[in-house]
Amino acid sequence: MQSALSSRAMLRAPLRASIVTLSARHVRPFSASSTSYLHLWDHLPGESVNEPSEGLAKLKGRMREERFRVKPLLNTAEHDRFDVVIVGGGIVGLATARELLNRYPKMTVAVLEKEREVAPHQTGHNSGIHAGMYYEPGSTMAHTCVRGSELMYKFCEENKLPAQRCGKMIVATSAEEHKQVEKLYKQGNANGVKGLEIFDAKQVSDMEPNIKAYSALYSPNTGIVDYSLVSDALASQILDSGRADIKLAFEATNFKKLADGSVEITGIEPSQNGPTLQVHAGNVITCGGFYADRLAGLTGGNAKKDQVVTFRGTYYQLKPEYRTMVRMNIYPVPSGGGIPVGVHITPTVNTRRGHALIIGPGACFTFAREGYKFWDFKAKDVIQSFTNPDFWAFALKNISLSFGELYKDLNKRAFLRAAQRYAPDLTIDMVEPSFTGVMSQVFREGGIAASDYIMERKVLGGTTLNVRNAPSPACTASLAIAEMIADIAAEDFQWSKAEKK
Ligand SMILES: Cc1cc2nc3c(=O)[nH]c(=O)nc-3n(C[C@H](O)[C@H](O)[C@H](O)COP(=O)(O)OP(=O)(O)OC[C@H]3O[C@@H](n4cnc5c(N)ncnc54)[C@H](O)[C@@H]3O)c2cc1C
């Protein structure tokens, strides 16, 4: 036992050494950008003091955070009539509300969110600002990602939110995978992504000594951000307009078009029996994430089509002593039948979860739409997924992927093996559990993972627009998606002729 331990310790020594060297090298010039170094953000926007992380001081810090975070505007409804009601307080709903308030100086807007804070689901569980090389040239995804990423960096700069252009390498581990690197390079250039370069094995290890690859696509403008903070800042701007309300703990459960043309939305406070909550809207936009299809059904849209299936993305994180193992985002080349799978390593800037180097996510089918843990189970959700022929078509076409992801979710070694392909010195004792996110995915006929946003227009007698699919990179792209939604809404609801303008 003794000798096994000491030989393990010896094996680890070179990696420790290289990590120490890497931190020392942290200051070397790196690409053209002076913002490329990872920066530790130890305070919230607008603050300038360094807080101790213990005792009373920590408590004070937390209270400050609470002040910055949106105050619970539960559903006590001072106002119950709005020009537009947006259902879903994730980043897409919030960005859309802000965009409408900016475009139309007289418009009144409410956002309904079923949880007790904004952006608690998909939006609050990721950090990547994508640059735009994954998407088909000419697609809405490509356009909104490239434009959205620049808008996102600008928004963060204006609002003093922690965002970092830390860069990214998409690594190929073989000549076969290198073909994907070349494809992404061409695609990225066609999409207008700036600064892309293809690196050979030596350039990869010069840049990231703990990464071993055949080649890589390097993207200097990929970055990281805290999307919960971005959402809080969006929410603050919405409220500051003086023409808007964010009603938390308001789960919309029924939509009815009234004789005067307006829509009555009723709802409940989740896990309570009553009282019934109510607001009225001229127009409705639903941005419901996991529940996009059910909300569509409630508004008279086609709930049978474009149903949501959810996947759990588990993360591990490097223990603190290994946090400098890499300094930029390291992704494998994409795989997985069109769903975003591929265990990657990413530094984070997150006020809630701190500075970590996370590894993940997996993409494991969930037994509940909010299935953050393996055993979370909701019969309605499982039945809906298992009776969805498009999901079955996907699963059968990708059997090894489906079982592989399930196994990976339960088995830490199998999970890490995915990252060890390009980070060979990574071992199981270097990581600890981190957070888990759940992502929604729509499958279209024949088991094709929907790879673009889906808008269901002019439902409920022409009053309502349903955003049916907003997968990754919808956080990156959110400010550009909001522009697109506002354009569609203006056309569908003929707002250019309306007084609100
Ligand atoms: C693990 C993971 C990693 C990801 N990585 C990235 C990345 O690196 N970069 C990137 O750009 N994107 C990434 N994504 C994708 C991104 O998070 C989503 O595309 C984006 O957050 C979608 O935003 P949304 O507002 O549509 O959904 P959500 O954030 O899920 O918000 C929808 C909201 O609607 C609310 N809601 C639903 N039904 C009702 C109702 N009836 N009444 C009231 N409220 C309701 C929900 O409570 C929820 O808050 C990732 C996602 C996950 C899960």
From TrEMBL:
Ranges for domain FAD dependent oxidoreductase: 83-487
Enzyme class: oxidoreductase
The keyword Endoplasmic reticulum appears for this protein: no
Any matching Pfam family: DAO
Catalytic activity: (S)-2-hydroxyglutarate + A = 2-oxoglutarate + AH2
InterPro entries for the chain: FAD-dep_OxRdtase, FAD/NAD-bd_sf
Keyword Plastid: no
Family stated for the protein in its record: Belongs to the L2HGDH family.
Protein's name according to its UniProt entry: L-2-hydroxyglutarate dehydrogenase, mitochondrial
Source organism of this protein record: Umbelopsis ramanniana AG
